Every structure is written in structure tokens, then in C-alpha cells.
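Hi support team,

I'm opening this ticket because the web form for multi-chain structure prediction keeps timing out on my end. I have pasted the exact lines I submitted so you can reproduce it. The total is 989 residues across three entries, so I didn't expect it to be a heavy job. Is there a limit I'm missing, or should I split the entries? Thanks in advance, R.K.
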Amino acid sequence: MARDKIYQEEDFPSPLIQLWHNFRQSPVVMIGFGCFIFLSILAVFSPIISPYSPIENHLDKLLLPPAWDNKGDISFLLGTDNLGRDMLSRLMQGTTLTFGLSFIVVIISLIVGVIIGSLSALTTGLKSSFLNHFLDLILSIPSLLLAIVIVAILGPGLSNTLWAIVMVLIPQFIHITRNAVEEEFKKDYVLASRLDGANSFRILSYSIFPNIIEKLIGQATLAQSAAILDIATLGFLGLGAPIPMPEWGAMLANGIDLFYIAPWTVYLPGLAILFSVVATNLLGEGIRHALKLRKEN
Amino acid sequence: MNLLDIRNLSIKLLTTNKPILAVDRVSLTIKEGEVRGLVGESGSGKSLLAQAIMGVLDDRWQVDADRFHWRGKDLMRLSDEERKVIISKDVAMIFQEPMACLDPTTTIGAQLEEAVSSEQLSGYFWEKRRQRQHEAIKLLHKVGIKNHDICIKSYPHQLTEALCQRVMIAMALARKPLLLIADEPTAAMESTNQGQIFRLLASLNQLKNMSILLISHDLENVTHWTNTITVMYSGQFVEAGTTEHIFKQPYHPYTRALVDSSPKANMNIPIKSRLMTLPGSIPILQHLPIGCRLGPRCPKAQQACVKAPKVKNYHGHQVSCHYSLKEDY
Amino acid sequence: MLLLTILSFSLSFLFPGEQIINISGQIHANPEHIELIALEYAKHESLFSQYFIYLSHLFNGNWGISMGSQLPVIVEVINHLPPTIELSMVALFIAMLIGISMGSQLPVIVEVINHLPPTIELSMVALFIAMLIGIPIGFIAAINHRKKSDNVILSFAMIGYSIPIFWLGLLAILIFSILLGWLPSAGQMSLLYEIKQVTGLQFIDILLSDSPYKWQAFQNASSHILLPACVIALAPATIFIRLARTSMLNVLDTLYIKAAMAKGLTFKQMIYRHAIRNAMVGVIRDVGLQFANLVTLAMVTEVIFSWPGIGNWLIQSIYQRDYTAIQGGLLALSCFIFIVHILTDFIYATLNPLARETRNGTR
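Hello R.K., no limit was hit. The queue was backed up. Here is the completed structure from your submission:
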């Protein structure tokens, strides 16, 4: 009884756990996070889960309305399109294409962009000014325009779409990484490690990266939602995935002609795109908000 | 007569976990023509108190007091807006970093003209406008700025800090206040400029009989320019009395430590000896001690200090301590 | 600008097919003809001189011949970029002056500005709508921070930002043109009205012409532009809402607002006189960046609404693999965006006295 502590022991959780606590506080963000996880699982497992093959034609059941309509059939839950292909399986496979592709695109451009960005932040002088101007130039061209031009060079097709969007997203990541690293370089703790004798590479990996990684993750979610929209737009314009593949934008372009008689072929893929973009944006907003709260506390 | 009479004012911060008592039962009185100093370390809640008097705190802070009288009128019963109307007519405030307190995208002249209250003007629109400009120039002269042309046309970032502070004082004088609250007016300046500002404040006090509440953590300046002093620590009331008394015979251990730590009071200590300080530092808001908040650091703390001490009054010199140093004198 | 021409020059090498054919556009030429063109474009000499010859061809207005129509690309650009900048014709002239002094490609800029009208018109109207709706709502959201309306506005902004533009366009056509029949769904103006093309800018042409149906033509043109402009304006409006809200929140937190409140101003006076001006300063700086996004959206919307602008033309030429046209279109569009960028920097410097002091161009 003698040595009672006057103050309660306050345990300070690590920054990551603090982030998770802040993140958890908003229910809307948790819903978005759940949807994101759902979409990712769907993207990975859709070939196994979907009831029918996405390119299989059921020629006896063309243009069936969704199951809640009078003329619909419960075995084709969301109806069929003009070639008798089941909408539900097409949408699920489309998750792999649109959503999964955007994820891969973001990962690749994140890695490449961060490497180039941090290296360029280390250089100074003529090389850096050249890179700066080059980057300004690329960034001034809107991303979709650049992607369209690159696809025009390479020709349409799924892998070309991937490379086009990767090449469009990389400058954005380079720009963000460069600004973040340069900002951190001016701070005193980097000066302290430099005085300790660390070379640039070590400073980068030990001191700076852990501090900018959250900013990068926030930017990555933004980039992913932009990538989903860009992939869908390219698919809509006919420059993305080839025809039979169930990419959401291409499905929408397919359904335009049947707009009046079969509106579900148009609004279902659109809803899917909206859903995935909203989920990604909610996730991104949640991360950024949690970061801000953590900084304030 | 007492201009401002506050008894047991508390300010609570409403956070998500539980409310934090940032200012704990502080009493303050200001007479007409008096220069009162409010002394305390950063974090002692002096700025909060000043802002609570002015009524510029936002919704997160909850203010209540036993007594809040202004010139005899009870303000606690009124709503926030009415209180603000009465106070803003007679009380003005100047802040710590004057350049940051001025709108960076408007000229000084425009901001000064805004401060001039329209009740003092008369006539039609164009006459009022010219009168406003005239008033603004007069105000600048009052604070000692002779060449007003350059000043009126420039933007805040083109002036120095001291000049901006003079402009702030001019804006404060526009309403002819009875009380001027100066919240660390010279913290951002060099000492020569500090002297100028204090002289200006002193002259305003003498010529216009304007009371001043000078908030500062710089004990030397405060003791030179004030009549009475109130000392606060970590949101609690510590001591109040005339400057001379507080400086020569501090009753509270904290005031004693403050006075001892300033070199001017320590002309007599032997050379190469340590300066007197209290160990530790001011407690953070999340870990406020119960009772007297100086407890963990006070050299005279004992069991009774777990309960907050009551204010004792010795001929106008008030102390809030269980073990005050009165018996030493 | 220089780099843009380098980019489009290199495109001719990157596009599949013979480089000579890509850069000049003559697909039906026989071998002697090819030799002649090769001489003209100095193919046998070093890359550097090839590039300079390309630049000189650009300056002379010789942009090559479009592969699809076999008309000179310049003529195609003139035909497809006409419509009208309604609100910013004067602003564009100012931008033109600045454009001249900054770069060296004088004739290119002049020609491009004269031939970008429908896209300019559409994007300017959309920008105007987006700013008009987005910025006040953002301010209102910031003033009611931590209250319910703030959350409502934010969630609406989030959803608006996530809607794919082509889907929204199709839905808009479905609801407004087909179900409700209020607004027309395609084209720039009904064919009934014959308006002489003077400047290429539709609204100014209408005002300048002396047809007896001037007012109806004006109404007709506005009803045609309304739906596409609103569809384009949605996503940028949500971004403006967010920008304006952040900017206003930052301003409301500053010391001078608190000092102004202590000075005795009422809340409303303070908002109108001080807060809005300072918040706008923070917003205007990012308007230029948003414009690139807006033009991209305009391109896709032009395809849906069959609007005769440069985006539609560019996408058609991509379908037809018309490489010279793509080069020209890319250059024109990027120049346009760049100019609007500079213009907004200019406006920003006017509003913010602090920024006038600094002399650096890019960040």
C-alpha cells in the first residue's frame, strides 16, 4: 500500500494502433472499409464464385430483366444482356478486371514513383531542374488525355491499358514523393542523423520513409479511385479491354444501344463503378481523417 | 468603483472523454484607472481568462462564474450575445502577434476605418465616410504615428511588429474603451520596441484614465509598469495585491519562487551560487493534480494540499495557500 | 511549350507505321513522292535538324495532312474547334498576350486560340457553373462546421466525386431529354437556326448576327449547352466544395478573425468583409489545376452529347488511327490548358498582395 502511484499509468499505443483507433471511430468509414475488403475478395475469387461463365451465351434467354421484375428469372439474378450473358457473373468478373487491375496499377506506379521520386529528391542542380520541368509538363497534361494518347500509340487491349495508366500515375507519385521528401529533408531530425554520419540512403530508409508512408497511402487511395474511373472510361471509349471481356466500362458502352428497352444493362455496371469508387474514396478519406486526428492529439 | 468584478470564474474544456477544468475559480477585480498585471507561465490560463472576459471563446469552452459584474451590472444573467454587446462597447483587447492579427489582404486604412464605431459619426453616407477617414488618421496620431499616409495605404506584412502593435492599439482606442486588455503585447518584439509600447500604454492610462489589464509572463516588465498584480498558476488563482507588496513580500511559495528567479530581485545572492527554481514543470491538461495544482512542485506541500485552498485576504493582499509565507515577514 | 513540341515530334516516331507518313499524312503517295517529302522533312539528316524543320513547318501552318480526310490538318482543326467562349473571350485575349511573351511559338498560340471555340465554350460554362455552385456551398459547410449540414454536404460531395462521368451523362440524357423532355440531348444548336459563323464562338455569333430570330437562337443555344455543362460541372463542383471548405476552415481558425471579432464586428460582417476574401485566395490558386481535370471530363462528355468540340474530334481521330490529327489535337488541348493555368495564376496574384512580391513562376 505504501507506494501507490498518484497518476494512472497511461499507456501510449504505437502510432499505427493510434491510427487504427482513430480510423475505427467513424462508422461510415468502417462501412467503406468493409466494402473495400468485400470488393477485393470478390476480385480475387470471382472466377470461382460466379454462377455462370461471363462469356457463355444463353441464347434462349436474351435481354432478361433482373429478378425483381415480373419477367425476370431467379436463376439469372440481375438479368442478361443482349447476347444472353448473365449480368451478375459479368459484374463479378468485371470486379477482377476493373477493380483488381486498378489495384495492381496503383501498386506498380507507387513503387516506381516512390523510387524515382526519392532519388530525384536527392539530386540537385541541373538534373533536378530538368526533372522538375519535365514533371511539370507531364502533370499539366490531364491524365485521361495522356492515357488516351498512350493507348493510341500502343493500340487497344487490356495490358496496354494497364501500362498507359501506370505511366500516367507515375508522375503524380513522383511529384508527391519529391515534395514530401524535400519537406522532410528540411526538418531537424534528418539533420541530426546526417550529423551522426548516416549516408543519404540510410536517412531515406530509416528516418524519412516511415514518416511519409501515410501521406503516400492517402495519395494511393486517391490514385486508385482515379484509376478505376480511368479504366472504366477507357473501356467505355472502346480503347480498353477487348469486347467479350466483362470490364465495367465496356459493358456500359455495350448497353447504350439498348438503353430504352433494357436500362439495367446500363445502370447496373454504372452502379458497380460508383460503388467501388465510393468505397475506395471512403477508405481514403478515413485514412486521411485519422491521420489528421492523430496529428492533433 | 470596481470596473470589473469577477469571482470564481471557471472555464471548462468539453472534450470527448471528460471535461477538463482549464481555469479553476479565479477571481479578479479592476478599478478605474488602474493598471493590473496578470502574471503566470505559459499554460496558466491567463489568455483563456482574457478571452473569456471578452467573450471570444468558441463552443468547446464552457464559462461560468459566481459573479461577473461590469460597472455594477450583473452579466452572468444575460445571454452570450447581450453580454458581448455590453462588453465590446467598453472593453478592447490587443493580442500577442500583432501582424498575425491583421487581415493580410486588406489595407491598414480600411481595417482602421472598420474599427471606428458608427455612433460617433453623423451625417449622410459620404460625410460619414470622410469622417471615418478623419477619425482613422486621428487615431494613428494618438498612438504616435506621425506620417499616417504611408501607414494607411500599406498592407500588414509591409510594416514592422511594433508598428502593427501600435495600429492594433489605435484600433482598440477607436471605441474609447474603459478597459484595455493587453495579452502579452510585447512578446514578439525587441526590448527597445517593448519600452515604446509600454510607455504608450502608460501614457494612455494617465491621460485618459483608461484601465489596463496587462497579461505577461515577464515579471520584470510587469512589476515596472503596473499598480497591482494577480498571479495565476495552471489555471488557479495564486496571489493578488499591490506590485510593491508582491515583489517585496510574496506570501505564496510560487510567487516567492517567481520573484527569486528574476535576476533583479537577486542582487544580494552570493556569486557563483545557484538561482532558485522550483523543480519540475507546469502540469499538462491531461494530468492536472487534484487540489492545489502546485502541490507536486511546492516545497511547502503537505497532506492538506490535496484539497484546494481557500482565498485569504490580508488587507487587500489575497493569497490562496494553506501554508502561506506570511509568518516569515 | 518547347517540350510539348518535342513530345509531339517524338510521337511521330512512336506511332506505328512509317515516320514520314506519320508526320506528313500522305498515305497514298508513291515512292517518288515519298522521296520528295523525305527531302522536305530532312529525313536523311540528323534528328536535330529534323526537329527544327518540323518546328518551321509548324510555324508556317503546315501541320501535315489528316490521314482520314486527306485535308490539311489545319483545316480540320479550324472546322472542328469553332464554338464560342461566352464569358472569357476578353480573358483569353489577355491570356494570349501573356502566352506570347512567355513562349516563342507565336503563330501556334494565335492559331490554336482562334480555333478552339466549342470546347472552350463548354468548359468555360462548366467551370463557371462549378465555381458558382461549389464555392458558396463549401463556405456554408465550413461555417456550419461540426453541425449536421456540414456532414450532409460532405457526403453529397463524396458521392458526386465518385460518379463516373459517362454514366452520369447517359442518366442525364435519360431523365432530362427523354423522360422529361426539357432539354435537348445532342449537338450545339438546332438546325432550324442559321447563324453565320463569324468568330466561331456560338453565343457571340448569335449576338453579332442580324437574324430576326436572335433571341430564340440564343435560348436554343443555351438550352443545348446547359445539360452537358452541368454534367461536366458536377465532379469539379464537388472538388471546389472540398477546397472552399478547407480554405474557409483555415481562415476561420486564424488570429485575425478572432481579433476582428474582438474588435466588435458581427459574425456576418466579418464573414463578408474578411473571411471570404482570404478564403477565395486559397481556392483560386487550385482552380487552375482543376481545369485540366475539367477538360478531360469535357472530352468524354463531348462524345456522349455529340458536341462538335476538340475532344470529340480527337477521339474520332483515335478510332480512325489518324496520327497527325492526334498530334495536333494533343498540342492544341495542352496549350489551352496551359494558358488557363497562367491566367488563374495572374488572377491569384491580383487578389493576394503577398504573392505579388514573389517572382518565381512555377512552384
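A quick check on our side: Chain C touches chain B at residues 146, 254-256, 258-265, 273-274, 277-278, 281, 351-354 (CB under 8 Å). Let us know if the file doesn't open in your viewer.
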